[in-house]
Amino acid sequence: MKSPAIKVTVKKDKSYYWCSCGLSKSQPFCDGSHKDYEKGRKPIHYMSPQDKFMSFCTCKKTEHAPICDGNHGHIDR
Ligand code: FES
Description:
Elements: E1 6-10, E2 15-18, H1 34-37, E3 44-47, E4 52-56
Antiparallel strand pairs: 1-4, 2-3
The chain binds FE2/S2 (inorganic) cluster.
């Protein structure tokens, strides 16, 4: 199965807000859509200790948010 993760180059000490609800049109990051449709859901803050290339989860089934852990391979679609 092809990974649905989105690969992003993150910058050291920059804040990123990963969408945990799946409604954002700016995946993998929050665009504020959770406020209208998913009461109680919030983005998850991420800050990298270094510049690096990483895979952000888009299926929202990761157990290591916001990083893709391969759980998408266990989802029935
Ligand atoms: S739009 Fe999904 S957490 Fe904000």
